[in-house]
């Protein structure tokens, strides 16, 4: 059985500043509507997440296109 030793302050700091994934991509977009409104959007993505999203979209859209073509 392992000892449950508390993590040192340096270990906690290293974990907080380290990127969750070494190839993580980040982006920020700011949209200004004159002086009335400002919207900011941020996003993060990993290569594995982008591939998964593309596969999911393909799994949904390919059968949908097949069904639409079949109805005509």
**DSSP helix count?**
2
- The residue-averaged pLDDT reads 82
The total tally of domains equals 1
How many strands?
2
Low-pLDDT windows of residues: none
First-residue to last-residue Cα separation: 66 Å
Strand neighbour order, sheet with most strands: 1-2
Largest sheet: 2 strands, antiparallel
- Coarse morphology: flat
Work out the radius of gyration: 22 Å
> Strand pairing plus helix content: what structural class?
alpha+beta
| Element-level helix/strand string | HEEH
Percent of residues in β-strands:
25-35%
Give the proportion of residues in helices.
40-55%
Region (Disordered): 1-27
Transmembrane segments: 48-68
Biased composition (Polar residues): 1-10
Keywords: Membrane, Transmembrane, Transmembrane helix
What does the model show?
Residues 1-27 are annotated as: Disordered. The chain crosses the membrane at residues 48-68. By secondary structure, the chain is of the alpha+beta class. The chain has 2 helices and 2 strands, in the order H-E-E-H. It has helices at residues 9-17, 47-71; strands spanning 25-33, 37-45. It has a two-stranded antiparallel ribbon. A hairpin with a 3-residue loop joins strand 1 (25-33) and strand 2 (37-45). It is flat. The model has no long low-confidence stretch (mean pLDDT 82).
């Amino acid at each position: 059985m392992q000892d449950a030793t508390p993590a040192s302050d340096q270990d906690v700091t290293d974990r907080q500043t380290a990127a969750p994934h070494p190839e993580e991509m980040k982006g920020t977009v700011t949209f200004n509507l004159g002086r009335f409104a400002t919207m900011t959007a941020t996003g993060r993505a990993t290569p594995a997440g982008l591939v998964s999203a593309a596969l999911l979209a393909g799994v949904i859209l390919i059968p949908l296109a097949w069904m639409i073509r079949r109805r005509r």
